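To close the section, here is one more complete example, presented without commentary so you can practise reading it yourself. The ligand is zinc ion.
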Amino acid sequence: MNNRPWLHCLLLLLALAAVSCTKQQEQSEPQPSPRIEEALVSVPEFDSQSAFKYLTTQTDFGPRNPGSQGHRACLTFLQTELSKYAEAVTVQNFSGADYKGKQYQLTNVVSSFNLQATDRILLTAHWDTRPWADEDANTAKHNTPVLGANDGASGVAVMLEIARVLKQQPPPIGVDIVLFDGEDIGKSGSLDTWCLGSKHFARTKATGFNPRFAINIDMIGDKMLAIPREEYSEQNVPDVVNMIFSIAGKLNLHQFADKRGSAVYDDHIPLNDVGIRAVDLIDFNYPDETNRYWHTTEDTPDKCSAESLGAVGKVLLYVIYSKAQM
Ligand SMILES: [Zn+2]
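Output:
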């Protein structure tokens, strides 16, 4: 494990921005140069291997579908792990039904960093896994719970690693990490039956909680990761999408495919519905256009990679530590 923080200087980027400003201001009064201290941003390293360990820790619990033993064990793990790093960890307990009508006790896990800061961003992922492998080629497996290495564990793994980094190097902005339950117990075509955790979080949002924006991550562990510009995100929050792809481009992260993606109903939609400007980072093509691992018993850790988790983690750390000023 390599935890040595590295200093990454955004000076070059800011210098380039300054050049572009200068070009526009050639005819006007000379502007004072930005102070170097303001232009330097220290972005800590994202440990991809540590993140991948967080992925397998979750899958080692087995499927984490609501009501299962794995669900209970994973919830305890998430609370324990986040309590090591966050200034505050709370849970939101609520009940919800899957699309077949079965009721469950569901739990969102809310963790906060730099509580003093009023300027905040929200990072989210779902931690539950689908109770049914109903896209499996083998129909005999359609009632088998999925392991959810990518669809569930990958987003949470990146969030846990970010939490660990936030403890080591306090962020210059307030950060809230919320792990949603009950995302994946819906029925195709029935939007009401999906994303129960984010809907509950949005419904109970405190009036004073107004993060600058939110980034939801889902299915970002695929070995063949290619995250496009998700359609709803592009429509609702184009400036944040542009910022994310700009950072990914500057970091040469090929896992971000700067192209238009399809529209995905995910946990960012309920957030947008209550005025939280939310982006979804998702590669729905798992592993490719055949989509043959999504909601199947094939969604296992060997289909995922540390490098993919690392690409997303690096971008999110840049967003946090540059205070999203890029
Ligand atoms: Zn799913």
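Once you have examined the tokens, check your reading against these statements. Residues 134 and 142 are 4 Å apart (CA to CA). Residues 1-39 have pLDDT under 50 and may be disordered.
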